[in-house]
Amino acid sequence: MQGSVSFGKEVIDTISHYMRRNAGAGAAASASGRRSIPFSKETDVIYIIIQSAYLCRDLQFCEGELELFLNEYIMVQTKSIETIFEGIFNQKHLTDEQPKMEKPLIFEELKKCLREIRKLLRHINMKLRVESSSYLWVEVIKKISVMFQTAAILLAAERIEGNPDEIEQVKKKLTQKTVIATSIVEGKYESKLCSEYHVCVKAFAVTKTLETLLGSFKEMEEENVKLFIRYVSEALLETKLYSHLTEETSNELQIILNDMAYSDSVSAKGVLLSIHKAVEDRLNALQLKTHMVNGRDVELVHVILSDMDHVYGKSSFDPFHLFMKSFYGWQRTRKRLSGPIRSLLKDLTDAISDLPEDLSYKLINEVRAFLEITVDPE
């Protein structure tokens, strides 16, 4: 199993144009390490590097078969990033017989990540007595995902040069592709951890609540759905969401919300029910312990929900009970819902703010990427 991302030729050409290809960045032009022979973990350089790190040595948390799972997950994340860099650097396939003047950049970055992963695992191992192993495993998967995401973005950004305005667009595309790639791998391996190793997510309050909320719009009149969107749109302006988006994406999002709230030519109900389908698919996958292949927008919805479920994963009560009570009351009486929506968004924002910096960065990147490919596609 290998992670991969498909890119439009124009995207690769654009990014490649701004990557340094001079002697000072010789490693960028070095071999990708891809082999012409069929893939085998036993002979794959990346897997050998990972295996040789002995990440789970003396750690109860990931001993036995779980160590094999972890090594494979790291390998596939690495290969998903390698796929991106092969496109960026326009590298050629090399066989074992072709000499390599220096180690590929991806190998060096992998070794740095492995050192950080070892530190993470030792820290997680100490938490085993006080936190559930399933919660900790999901945390490990997410933290490793953002490690690779961050390393790839920084590595490429250091080698981009050219017109400042154009560079920003290149960075945006590169970040978007990297976030999508790591998210797809993360989703597949979170599912595999459950279906094959029986380490499953126990709490998914955000997914369940959102599925119930969106499902409620099936029988609701379009006029009332539009009213709900108005409340949400107004409340969003009071959050920090727009500060994390580009001006273009922020403007597009506001236009779309405005159209959903006021335009007769846009079905707010139709939009919300299409989102409901994606949320429902995640809920079904969690309950059936399966993984479905989805489009990149749906994959991002699922990983965002997974992150939010993890945020509330240790909560001993339903964090959305009061809001849903207000929502059901609004359905019956049509009393204003703006206050409860503002309170809900504030609670969500506060919960995200309390996240460790890496997981907060990860979630923001995912939301930004989702909005860029849906409300501001290029």
Number of DSSP E strands: 0
Radius of gyration: 22 Å
Tally of individual helices: 14
Distance between the termini: 30 Å
Structural class by secondary-structure content: mainly alpha
How many structural domains can be distinguished in the coordinates? 2
Oligomer state equals: single chain
Order of helices and strands: HHHHHHHHHHHHHH
Mean pLDDT: 83
Shape: globular
The biggest beta sheet is recorded as: none
Q: Low-confidence parts, pLDDT < 50 over ≥5 residues? A: 1-37, 91-103
Strand content: under 5%
Helix content: 55-70%
In short:
The protein is mainly α. 66% of the residues lie in helices and 0% in strands. It has helices spanning 9-17, 45-52, 65-89, 105-125, 133-157, 164-197, 205-215, 222-236, 247-262, 268-288, 296-311, 321-333, 338-353, 357-374.
3D structure, described in words:
It is a single chain. This protein is mostly helical and 378 residues long. The protein folds into two domains: 9-197, no CATH class; 205-374, no CATH class. The chain contains 14 helices and no strands. The longest helix has 34 residues, at 164-197. Residues 1-37 and 91-103 have low confidence and may be disordered.
